[in-house]
Amino acid sequence: MIDVIIVGGGPTGLMLAGELRLHGLRVLVLERDAEPSPVVRALGLHARSVEVMDQRGLLGRFLTHGRQYPLGGFFAGISKPAPEQLDTAHPYVLGIPQPITDRLLAEHATEVGAELARGHELVDAEQDETGVTAELADGTRLRSRYLVGCDGGRSTVRKLLGVGFPGEPASTETLLGEMEVTEDAATVTATVAEVRETQPRFGLGPFENGVYRVVVPAAGISQDRTVPPTLEEFKQRLRTFAGTDFGVHSPRWLSRFGDATRLAEHYRVGRVLLAGDAAHVHPPTGGQGLNLGIQDAFNLGWKLAAEINGWAPEGLLDSYQTERRPVAADVLDNTRAQMELLSTAPGPRAVRRLVSELMGFEEVNRHLIEKIIATGIRYDFGEGDQLLGRRLRDVGLGRGRLYELMHHGRGLLLDQTGLLSVQGWQNRVDHVVDVSEEMDVPAVLLRPDGHVAWAGDDQGELLEQLPKWFGAAGG
């Protein structure tokens, strides 16, 4: 039997496949499309996703294909310098087109043993006490212990489950595409700057080899967003806002997106779970969607593996929804706010000017940027040290870096005292005795996703926390 069937071969599904394989599970990824999509919906990785790649030893691959950009201007496009001393070793945006991210994650997943089956569409799924039966469009039936829907905002898995997806429908629509431009670069730059003074949702940016990424508000809301716009639609909308269509031609791809916000009522129904856009959709402001999905997978992977491998403590798998659904709700809220700040109406423009003033204060700027890059997330683990529930950034150690010790997806006790023990949990938790000048607590217990489960120096307290996250000793 397959341990986990993942429906959807985008970044969320591929990240999850890699995480599950770290724990020895048999994983099958079903992707409806026969070939990888060339559409560049996401342009990069924010700091927390960069950290995730670093924690699993993948960052070098991404740095080879990406470019580092400063963090300023990511909240509603309000141009402010990045806050100083952000709590991350990666205070930048890693610009990397989504097709490359997809390819790198697919290569990793298959390298570690996941099976990726393209051109296979799920049409039905039924679960019982022991597993899930998945039916494909060609009539094939597959059996797995669990199934995870990572199949996007129109998720088949979510619909089969009957999970509610409440929220607001799109009220605006935007055209997005890549195409060549006849107009000279200087004229394009000057014209775009002038238009953006009153229309911040408008943009033409050079991409590569004379190709531009074009973003322009649509004339209305399409009845079927799966139908791509035409080049003529782009030309008409460009002329409406800029008085010229810049001589756009030879499109690579054309698409449209709206500003709908929806959040699944449940992330888990029995042996079927949802992750990524299957669980939440929101406007792309701030570039958070792909990152949110990757981080969902990072939270879910080790928990689902623990459940299947038989050592998960009670409630561990359900903590996936408890922890990640509030994060998604916050992203929905901040993207709603950003869309208001991008409006051309007088009221929102006045609020935008006020928010811009407030972002002149370092703490306000930091707070808003941390929302976008997801380094400010703190899961509710109860009372305790200020680190409790937060992910620990990559701190330097006497013998290297913290994240170099986390490539295998296990728990980690970083012990500066040398007096503590994880006896009984050695098969799930690594014990590293080392010193960091960047950490002012005696020791921390890190979950496989890098979040601090405990901090202190009392062995008795540690023994209370180990079973909570890593099950019974010796199991």
From TrEMBL:
Coiled coil: none annotated. Its cofactor is FAD. The keyword Flavoprotein applies. GO terms for molecular function: FAD binding; oxidoreductase activity, acting on paired donors, with incorporation or reduction of molecular oxygen, NAD(P)H as one donor, and incorporation of one atom of oxygen. It comes from the Bacteria. InterPro entries: FAD-bd, FAD/NAD-bd_sf, RIFMO-like. Gene3D superfamilies: 3.30.70.2450, 3.40.30.120, FAD/NAD(P)-binding domain. Pfam families: FAD_binding_3 (PF01494), Rng_hyd_C (PF21274). Residues 2-335 form the FAD-binding domain. Keywords: FAD, Flavoprotein. SUPFAM superfamilies: FAD/NAD(P)-binding domain (SSF51905). PANTHER family: BINDING MONOOXYGENASE, PUTATIVE (JCVI)-RELATED (PTHR43004:SF19), TRK SYSTEM POTASSIUM UPTAKE PROTEIN (PTHR43004). This is 2-polyprenyl-6-methoxyphenol hydroxylase. It comes from Actinopolyspora mzabensis.
